[in-house]
């Protein structure tokens, strides 16, 4: 009750303030200014107050629709569209299409949009095509929208798609366009942070996110992004303060809870995690971050059998997830199933890239079953040797993240000198592909598949590098289909499989 009142009172006050003294024209002017500045809640209050005296003003109603859409309120937007049409407003197809998109009905959005060719129309069309998995059509719509003049929302949506698909150069180009259009906009500030983070420029990322928080203190996303940045630096207190700040402005955002639980796990507050999540255990999706953190809390608190069930489900849902496998192995050890633990952990520990947690658990499992590999695992845990290996692993990951392909390839070639390793080969294939060395990428990926033919990640990369190289597309499709069979929930595999089918004709 207190939370509801705390949220409701400022809104009541804003409405009262907006209604006192100002004419409808003044309120409408203020609403347009706030809308342009990204202050959508304030704009909605002001235009709603203006409409009390001008209930059939089409321009005001159109602005109300747009604010509802920006706030992600499909019901409010639909009601405002009805009022706009009754007031004689036309050309509402794009608005209705965006409502359908907000409700998750991409097909209806496309059907409603028709032949709309405005910049907003191209954006909605592109986002609907992405929701339907047709990336080629989406990219075409994005490009046509940019040629039609572009705007900050279209550029942001396109840049985010490119960022998620690793095209950092084109994303950077679009960021430049966003900064030209609206340099202090929320979209430009956040995208600057996201791009810097993807490129490994952590200080620039933190600076951009802080700028977005200062300029838009009612938005949770940059707070969570900066919290994640601080978390990576081990600054847990700073990260926790930002999560608390995000919870104030977006108490129902599931990402806030995920980040809070993540920080609690790093602080070892297992009982707090258990009590927070235990009443919702049946609702937590298998393999989700919350489910696995809950499982880890149970394991730490001595409920190993419950944890084993959770991580078994996680491995089934995410067969390529190393954390799920590690925690399943630890749960099996804790329940006295040494043989099962060794079977789970041995493939993870066989990789040159295995970290200390994996090596320690695998060594324990090997000793439990008398496996001869126990001595070698213990040797790999030598502090000096482990430090050197982990430094190389970190450098390789950083190079891949920053698309420094030559550096990444050199590091993984060095790691291969320690023995053939499908995880290293997978990363080497990716780096070679980034360098445009299609043949070398395919050779490395195929070696990884030969060492782990039932691993969806290896199959995925073997298909991916063929698609990128534009060769052997029938085999690429076969590899990706097999990967999808093994990991049907993996969106990256599904996306690449569609590309392979389209390329193969």
Instruction: Please state the average pLDDT score.
Output: 90
Which blocks of ≥5 consecutive residues have pLDDT under 50?
A: 1-20
**Main beta sheet, described?**
none
Number of beta-strand segments: 0
The number of helical elements comes to 30
Tell me the span between the first and last alpha carbons.
59 Å
Brief summary:
This protein is mostly helical and 505 residues long. It contains 30 helices and no strands.
Q: Which secondary structure elements does this structure contain, and how are they paired or packed?
A:
Layout: H1 2-19, H2 24-36, H3 40-53, H4 58-70, H5 74-86, H6 93-102, H7 106-113, H8 119-131, H9 135-147, H10 152-164, H11 168-181, H12 186-198, H13 202-215, H14 221-232, H15 236-249, H16 254-266, H17 270-277, H18 289-300, H19 304-317, H20 322-334, H21 338-349, H22 356-369, H23 374-380, H24 383-401, H25 405-416, H26 422-434, H27 438-451, H28 456-469, H29 473-486, H30 491-504
Helix pairs in contact: 1-3, 2-3, 3-4, 4-5, 5-6, 6-7, 6-8, 7-8, 8-9, 8-10, 9-10, 10-11, 10-12, 11-12, 12-13, 13-14, 14-15, 14-16, 15-16, 16-18, 17-18, 18-19, 18-20, 19-20, 20-21, 20-22, 21-22, 22-23, 24-25, 25-26, 26-27, 26-28, 27-28, 28-29, 28-30, 29-30
């Amino acid at each position: 009750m207190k939370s509801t009142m705390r949220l409701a009172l400022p809104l009541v006050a804003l409405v009262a303030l907006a209604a006192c003294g100002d004419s409808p024209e003044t309120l409408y002017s203020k609403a347009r200014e706030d809308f342009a500045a990204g202050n959508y809640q304030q704009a909605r209050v002001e235009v709603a107050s203006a409409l009390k005296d001008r209930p059939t003003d089409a321009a005001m109603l159109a602005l109300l629709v747009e604010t509802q859409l920006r706030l992600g309120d499909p019901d409010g937007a639909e009601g405002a569209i009805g009022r706009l049409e009754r007031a004689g407003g036309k050309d509402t197809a794009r608005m209705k299409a965006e409502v359908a998109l907000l409700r998750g009905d991409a097909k209806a959005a496309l059907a409603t949009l028709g032949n709309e060719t405005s910049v907003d129309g191209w954006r909605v069309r592109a986002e609907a095509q992405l929701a339907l998995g047709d990336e080629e059509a989406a990219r075409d719509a994005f490009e046509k929208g940019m040629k039609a003049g572009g705007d900050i929302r279209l550029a942001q949506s396109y840049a985010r798609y490119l960022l998620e698909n690793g095209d950092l150069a084109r994303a950077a180009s679009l960021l430049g366009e966003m900064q030209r259009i609206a340099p202090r906009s929320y979209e430009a500030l956040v995208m600057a942070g996201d791009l810097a983070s993807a490129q490994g420029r952590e200080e620039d990322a933190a600076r951009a996110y802080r700028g977005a928080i200062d300029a838009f203190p009612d938005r949770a996303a940059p707070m969570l992004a900066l919290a994640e940045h601080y978390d990576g630096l081990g600054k847990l207190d700073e990260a926790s303060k930002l999560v608390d700040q995000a919870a104030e402005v977006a108490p129902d955002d599931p990402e806030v809870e995920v980040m809070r639980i993540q920080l609690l796990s790093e602080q070892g507050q297992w009982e707090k995690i258990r009590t927070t999540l235990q009443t919702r255990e049946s609702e937590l999706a298998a393999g989700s971050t919350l489910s696995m953190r809950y499982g880890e809390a149970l394991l730490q608190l001595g409920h190993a059998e419950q944890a084993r069930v959770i991580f078994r489900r996680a491995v089934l849902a995410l067969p390529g997830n190393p954390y799920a496998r590690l925690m399943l192995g630890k749960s099996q050890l804790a329940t006295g199933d040494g043989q099962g633990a060794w079977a789970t952990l041995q493939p993870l520990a066989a990789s040159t890239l295995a970290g200390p947690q994996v090596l320690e658990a695998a060594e324990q499992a090997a000793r439990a079953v008398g496996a001869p590999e126990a001595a070698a695992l213990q040797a790999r845990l030598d502090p000096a040797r482990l430090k050197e290996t982990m430094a190389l692993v970190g450098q390789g990951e950083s190079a891949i993240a920053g698309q420094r392909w030559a550096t990444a390839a050199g590091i993984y070639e060095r790691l291969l000198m320690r023995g053939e390793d499908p995880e290293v080969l997978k990363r080497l294939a990716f780096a070679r592909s980034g360098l445009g060395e299609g043949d070398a990428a395919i050779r490395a990926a195929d070696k990884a598949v030969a060492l782990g033919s039932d691993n969806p990640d290896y199959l995925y990369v073997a298909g991916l590098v063929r698609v990128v190289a534009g060769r052997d597309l029938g085999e690429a499709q076969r590899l990706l289909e097999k990967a999808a069979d093994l990991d049907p929930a993996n969106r990256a595999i599904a996306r690449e499989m569609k590309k392979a089918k389209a390329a193969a004709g």
